Amino acid sequence: MRDHPHGENASHPEVWTGRATNRVQWLPALGGAACLALGIELAVDSAWTSDNAPLIMSVVGCIAAGLLILFGTLAFLHVAVKVDKDSLEVRCGHIGLPRRRIPLSHVVGADFDPQVTPRHWGGWGYRWRPELGTAVIVRRGEGLVLRLGDGHTFTITVDNAEAAVRIIRERLRPGAPAAH
Question: N or C: which end of the chain has fewer CB within 10 A?
Answer without folding.
Answer: C
